[in-house]
């Protein structure tokens, strides 16, 4: 009898693991589909907002600096949702937006010199 009970427990546990593994791959597939839908929606909004040359410039920027391109895309999508865009943005308009974003995210670099004072000859001046 113990063997039958043990076999039933094993089958139940195996079914639970298979169901759990199947659910996780199903959730992963749903997550990928959601990301694809979001990407398609972003592209359709950008196609409505930007003209061809501006889209080309933005795609070139995305290859070089993806974080800056995504920030500009988010900015454009937000402007489109609020209705503050008067029409399609040309390449020159996109350049102005890029300059604004660059000024906001500009990093200041500073250089600090830390001199060693181990063998400083000025401190130990001996007059002979």
TrEMBL record:
Pfam family for this entry, one: dsDNA_bind
InterPro entries: PDCD5-like, PDCD5-like_sf
Annotated region described as Disordered, given as residue ranges: 16-42
Superkingdom of the organism of origin: Eukaryota
GO MF annotations, alphabetized: DNA binding
UniProt KW Nuclease keyword: no
GO terms under biological process: apoptotic process
Annotated Gene Ontology cellular component terms: cytosol; nucleus
Keywords: Acetylation, Apoptosis, Phosphoprotein
Coiled coil, from the record: none
Residue ranges, compositional bias (Basic and acidic residues): 32-42
UniProt keyword Acetylation present: yes
Function: May function in the process of apoptosis.
Family indicated by similarity: Belongs to the PDCD5 family.
Name of the protein described by the UniProt record: Programmed cell death protein 5
The species this protein was found in: Gasterosteus aculeatus aculeatus (three-spined stickleback)
């Amino acid at each position: 009898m113990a063997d039958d009970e043990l076999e039933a427990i094993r089958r139940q546990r195996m079914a639970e693991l298979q169901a759990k593994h199947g659910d996780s791959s199903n959730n992963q597939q749903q997550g990928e589909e959601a990301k694809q839908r979001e990407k398609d929606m972003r592209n359709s909004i950008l196609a409505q907002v930007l003209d061809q040359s501006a889209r080309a410039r933005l795609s070139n920027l995305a290859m070089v600096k993806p974080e800056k391109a995504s920030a500009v895309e988010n900015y454009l999508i937000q402007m489109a949702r609020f209705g503050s865009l008067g029409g399609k943005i040309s390449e020159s308009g996109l350049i102005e937006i890029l300059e604004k974003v660059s000024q906001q995210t500009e990093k200041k670099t500073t250089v600090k010199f830390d001199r060693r004072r181990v063998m400083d000859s000025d401190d130990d001046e001996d007059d002979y």
